[in-house]
Amino acid sequence: MRARTSRIGNVATLALALTLGGATAIPASAEPLPPPSTTGGVSDGAKGAPDKEKMSSHSQELLIEAEAAGKSRVTVMTATERGKTAEVVKHLTSLGATIGYVHDKLGYVRASLPTGKAEQVSTIPQVKYVDLDEIVSEPKPDPAPGTGTGSSPWTGPSPQTPAENPYLPTADTGAVAFTKKNPTYDGRGITIGVLDSGIDLEHPALATTTTGERKISNWITATDPLLESDPTWRVMLNRVSGETATFRGANWKLPHRDDAQYSIDIFRESSSARSEFKGDIDRNGKTADSWGVLYDYQTHDIWVDTDGDHDFTNNTPMRPYAEKNQVGHFGKDNPSTRVQENVPFVVEYRTNVDLTPIGHAGTTADVINIGTVSSAHGTHVAGIAAANMPGWKMQGAAPGAKVVSAEACVYAGGCTSVALTEGMIELVANQRVDIVNMSIGGLPALNDGNNTRSALYNRIIDEYGVQIFISAGNSGAGTNTIGDPSVATDAVSVAAGASKDTWLANYGAKAKEEYWAQNYSSRGPREDGGFKPNIMAPGSAISAVPMFMDPEDIPQVSYKLPVGLSMFNGTSMASPQATGAAALLLSAARQNDLPVTPAQLRASLESTTRFIPGLEPTAQGNGLIRIDRAWPVLRKAPEASNKYAISAPVCTPLAHLLATPNKGEGIYNRCDATKGGHKAGQNRTYNVTITRTSWPPRGHITHPHLDRQRRNLLSTTPWNSPRKTLHHSRWTATPKRLGTHADILDITPRDNAIHGTRMMADIITSNALDTAPYTASMAGNMDRVRARSIFVTVPEKTQALQVNLAGIAHGSAVRFLAIDPLGMPVESEEIQNRCYTSIGDAKVCPPTSRAYTNPCPGVWEIVRRRQPTHTRHIQLLPPYRSAQGVTVDPAEKTIPTASVGSPTEINWNIKNDFGSTPVRGTGGPLGSAHEERPSISQGEKHTYKVAVPAGTSRLEISTGKPADINSDLDIVVRDASGTEVGRAATSSAEETVTLTNPTAGTYTVEIDGYTIPGGKMAYDYQDVYYSSTLGKLTINNGPLRTLEHGATLPITGEITPNTQPDEGRHMFGELTIMNSENAAIGSAKVSIEKITTK
Asked: pLDDT digits over 612-654, tens only?
């Protein structure tokens, strides 16, 4: 396909401006950065680590949320010293905990305990990490909004589709070429664990392997049966006996068994209302059906009254799937339709479960599970990894492999941390799978892999010799958006790529590039500079989905998909591509009696990739995997033990929170140039310490993908180093342009077939917005498959970061998204796809102009991308730049005396310090403020009452100016009924809660001294409400007036109080200078010292 047929992206301008005064009502603000800490994190096995650092910062936030919500108990997951779980259990029990799961070999204990005791878990000496359970959002396929041409040489998959095809592009990884050359190395003899949302047990593509064996060898549920809102678990407390029993107003007929000890319960389909079932599990168009379940305490047999006649005697007793491969069904299938109208399920049970966490102290009971898929995601993932479609040439990566399904997700949406941890243990330690895929994860701000789950994953890989593959995440294309738990050091983090053939076949859109990283694919590095992602694999696929789901058409293509197939895209699809490809290597090794360690598997895959030119390593890691290249390396059983330990400088807003403060496994510099950051054109040296832990003493440093014109990252010469001695290496970087500059630095003995230790280096040079006109811009062409970023440094005390997008032709679809200095996307996932020009929703997300209020200082990334399938021609329009910022004189003014109902005139002058801009002044309702500076101790709570009058438009509560910058204060606001209505709980003492249009009444404010290193300190407290009942500030100006650079403009106004302030409060008004985008570019404050009545 000729490049000239591709649609080239918009020629557009992205302009950014800072506002150093005033405030804007446009949403999408980011939290301020936490202050530097005097202590770091804790590494596995570290002694004497600070107790609080054992709990990740994310879990500390979860604990604050639980306390604020009044939760009586929380679930903690701990990584302990191996073999020391008994001591941990003893300590936890003394805290009132109920133990839910223990694995001594790996060093893992999970428990439920009173919320107020959770912090004390960190004080247990044998505990190394502690985290709280939560729901992790299930990845959603990245949508492709808009419409394509619908014209393509690809007519959709069919039995005649060749093995090498763009729909399910296993050929991209070399899997097709490998199995064509080696037909028996198709995954046979290998079992893949799929930790996900469950797999459809009756999909034809997942029925058998290429050798005729059952494809799905087991199906289990990994969620906690009591505490994770999973209604598929039923607690069997209702004992019944005899031939009949009455339960829930109905008479039930029971199987005749002498001395049987039965228990009965109900499973309701309405519990699936928030899932893809939409409450209709039996697919009959109704959502009120329910089914009785019966359990025999002696034999553990389970009956499900699937026909709904209240008679268990005509239902076959069921056993867990692994025992007899029994599958039940809800609903009745109509063979004449394409869709399967019944839903398969399996059963399992757990015995003697302690019911204390749900209010039955001292009581145990057995629980049973009705296992159905919770979404289509897991089936799609399994199909990519291992589908064997009867009569089709198009197959999954490893059609000969078996699969074990571990359900980790719930109907209500999302997957639980407990299930993602214990499900992994179950798959590897008990189910004995050979390799695991997990396409689920999240994005915490501190994504350094220093938490309970990452530690457990590393231990699992090391202890059991089973490699784990994890999706990198769909939070890209911003730097440092790599997801957790793919940040676990020894897990293989998989980024998503795509070819132009797949783009045309699956999206109906043409692209210029041959291969690229998908824009949604999360980028590295890890917060500590760690090498993530590790590899890239295809991230779009037409694969299996449950047969009982209606087929979904792809609007951008002309063909229709049959029942049981659907097109998803995301790193969720890339990970099983890599997992299935790796299963082929393991299959080949097993058939050649070649033992393979996870380190050998990783090294063989990562050393033989196809590195995509022009694509940063932070997007593709080592590159696109090619197992046809990897096998010749792996079959030689390469030495791949841990070679070198690296300690490199890290400069980010969160670097002080790393396990070793400001040090990590790679060079990562995202700092403000005035605070340790790197300037474009600057020649700078980074000191890296390298410790040889094994292998020959001679090391050789290379940087194979270096582009010196762009990066100029230089290495030192080879060296000789005895084992366990340090080598101090100096790395010089001279980036010549603004932006991100990443490279891979390789330390490998000469003539070795695989990579040695690899270090990622990423240096960001940013546009400094600290001098007039406080603007930066980016313009140029952009292909639909590429994203472009501009980095800007936002200085402290900035009130608004204004971003404008211009030069976009009518009908073109482009968006920009902001990534804050912590690597966190500011726009929520729910609104991101509503931010496109021409096809977005301007009311939800203005596509061409947004202001980010109170932005945290540091290096921001603004990512611009085209809508992936839009085909309209792009026209060049004149670029637009925005440069705003005015000085208001006087900035603060005090009126000695004002009378109720009488206006007092005020005069200001505003001066434009920057480029030409339209301006106007705005006033509004007066505010009433209460301020004080109290002292607070560690663990102390201060309580304030705020009487908010009717007509209040805004209530703000804030803390600030702490005497100790390492302190942490939290704010909780409750209304008159005691309901929490606001909370601020970052890791600093600078907190603000804002309530818009609050209901009149008395509000209670709680200030929590969460962390006070010195024991006690002073801080500023303020509560302010704005209400028209207090009075107003009126500005006397007309429409927008253009103010040139250096020009001044007089503005007059009147302040009129309507009442006197309550005791201990004072009243004021605010003047805000707005630009044409309604962004605040200046402000002034008018206070009234005394208000009299007439």
From this structure: 998 999 999 999 999 999 999 999 988 776 577 899 999 999 9
Do 729 and 796 lie in one domain? The reply is no
Catalytic pick among 58, 377, 727, 930 = 377
- Euclidean distance between CA atoms 262 and 243, whole angstroms: 11
Q: Structure pTM?
A: 0.83
CATH number at residue 965: 2.60.120.380
Any domain includes 460: no
Q: Tell me, what amino acid is at 236?
A: M
Tokens of 967: 């302190």
Contact 393, 163 (CB under 8 A): yes
Q: What is the side-by-side order of every strand in the sheet holding 814-819?
A: 767-768, 787-794, 858-866, 814-819
pLDDT of residue 476: 85
Output DSSP code: residue 856.
P
Can you read off the two tokens belonging to residue 443? 């994005």
For 892, other C-beta atoms within 10 Å of its C-beta total 10
3-state secondary structure of 71: coil
Catalytic, 572? Answer: yes
Query: E-strand spans in 430-579?
Result: 435-438, 467-471, 492-499, 515-517, 535-538, 540-544, 565-569
Asked whether residue 1034 is domain-assigned, the answer is yes
**Domain of residue 758, residue span:** 673-765
State the distance between the two ends of the chain, measured CA to CA, in whole angstroms.
83
Here the tokens at position 26 are 């446009």
**In terms of domains, do 1083 and 968 share one?**
yes
| pLDDT tens figures, 11-34 | 344 555 444 333 222 333 333 333
Contact 762, 740 (CB under 8 A): yes
Please indicate, yes or no, whether residues 822 and 946 belong to a single structural domain of this protein.
Answer: no
* Domain match, 1048 and 903 both: yes
Tell me, yes or no, whether 1002 and 1055 share the same domain: yes
Last residue of a domain, one of 834, 850, 883: 883
On whether residue 981 sits in a domain, the answer given is: yes
Instruction: Supply the CATH number for residue 716's domain.
Output: 2.60.40.10
User: Which residues of the chain, if any, have pLDDT below 50?
Assistant: 1-13, 17-49, 144-148, 150, 697-700, 702-717, 869-883
Q: Is 196 a catalytic residue?
A: yes
Q: Is residue 302 part of a domain?
A: yes
Residue of 521, 566, 572, 729 marked catalytic: 572
What pLDDT is attached to residue 771? 73
The confidence score (pLDDT) of residue 513 equals 87
Both tokens assigned to 751: 């003539």
901 and 951 inside one domain? yes
Q: Which of 750, 765, 780 is the last residue of a domain?
A: 765
Q: Compute the distance between CA of residue 275 and CA of residue 817 in angstroms, rounded to an integer.
A: 29
CA within 13 Å, CB half, 689: 9
377 is catalytic: yes
Q: How far is CA 899 from CA 413, 1058, 1068, 1093, in A?
A: 57, 8, 14, 6
- Enumerate long-range contacts of 588-593, CB under 8 Å, 24 or more apart: 588/182, 588/185, 588/631, 588/634, 588/635, 589/634, 589/635, 590/189, 590/190, 591/184, 591/185, 591/188, 591/189, 592/635
Residue range 480-535, pLDDT digits in tens: 999 999 999 999 999 999 999 999 999 888 888 899 999 999 999 999 999 999 99
The structure tokens 């039923």 sit at: 234
In the block, tokens 């797999």 appear at 199
Owner of token pair 């500030």: 1033
Catalytic-labelled residue, pool 196, 265, 282, 528? 196
Alpha-helix residue ranges (DSSP H) falling in 621-738? 627-634
Structural contact between residues 241 and 262, judged by C-beta atoms closer than 8 angstroms = yes
Residue 1030 in tokens = 């207090």
796 and 717 in a common domain: no
Nearest 5°: the CA angle 150, 153, 159 is 105
Counting the structural domains of the chain, the total is 4
Whether 891 and 1034 map to the same domain: the answer is yes
